[in-house]
Amino acid sequence: MSLRPAQPLLAPSLLSADFTRLGDALKLLEEAENCIVHVDVMDGRFVPNITIGLPVVASLRQATKLPLDCHLMIVEPLRYATEFVTAGADWVSVHQEADPHLHRTLGAIRAAGAKAGVVLNPSTPIETLVDLVGDFDFVLLMSVNPGFGGQSFIPRVLDKINRLNALRTERNTPFVIQVDGGVSLDNAQDLVRAGADVLVAGNAVFKAADPLGAIRQLLSEMEKGRAS
Ligand code: DX5
Ligand code: ZN
């Protein structure tokens, strides 16, 4: 049995969308298929930016059936993680660097009914996860330093994906590998070939002249990476 999900998914990040037209962005992702909605929650403390919070997630939940993937870039994530599930999040990820009690937080997210994920900054080694395998549903590897959309991809993350993929095989435990930051048509195929299953893309989708075409091209590159 494969330890990878059957279908690679794209997670367009609403951070790069027009905030006055989020409903239109959701319609676009519904039309494209094989998308989940990436929601970047920033608190101005863990990262130097403030973005989206609980009321927006609750409104998004009313407007779409697509899975909502909430990436919490906040300090003390246990304080809010289950509230995001109540607001409608299907996937909730918390940063390893923000939480000394990850085991407890991941358990709380799962108990509330969502998929639980751990996020690693570029400087955080995957070895910090070895004693948590089985306690998370997905790992999000940052390929930029979190805080802003539109930054350049850090190529060293490819080696990290390879090593995380090897850990998944070695421990014979299924979990999803997600990658976030600077994803584009130039690297999508390589990322999936290395072991990524879900790619987050902000500017590559919402700043494109044709966002629907950009999603389809990214998904097609991902399929090629999976086939090779
Ligand atoms: C960065 C966020 C990312 C970002 C992705 O802190 O977590 O999700 O918005 O945007 P791009 O794809 O433009 O790097
Ligand atoms: Zn993100």
Structure description:
It contains 8 helices and 8 strands, in the order βαβαβαβαββαβαβαα. Helix 2 (54-63) runs parallel beside helix 3 (81-87). The protein has one domain (9-227): TIM Barrel (Alpha-Beta Barrel). 36% of the residues lie in helices and 18% in strands. The protein starts with 8 loop residues before the first strand and ends with a helix. The chain binds D-xylitol-5-phosphate and zinc ion.
Helix content: 25-40%
CATH topology grouping: TIM Barrel
Low-confidence stretches: none
CATH class (first level) name: Alpha Beta
Output the radius of gyration. Answer: 16 Å
Assigned CATH superfamily = Aldolase class I
Please report the number of helical segments: 8
Structural class: alpha/beta
Number of structural domains: 1
- H/E topology pattern: EHEHEHEHEEHEHEHH
What is the terminal separation in angstroms? 18 Å
Task: Provide mean pLDDT, rounded.
Answer: 98
Strand content: 15-25%
Please summarize the sheet with the most strands: 8 strands, parallel
Strand ordering within the main sheet: 1-8-7-6-5-4-3-2
Bound molecules: D-xylitol-5-phosphate, zinc ion
Backbone shape:
globular
The total strand number stands at 8
> Architecture, CATH level 2?
Alpha-Beta Barrel
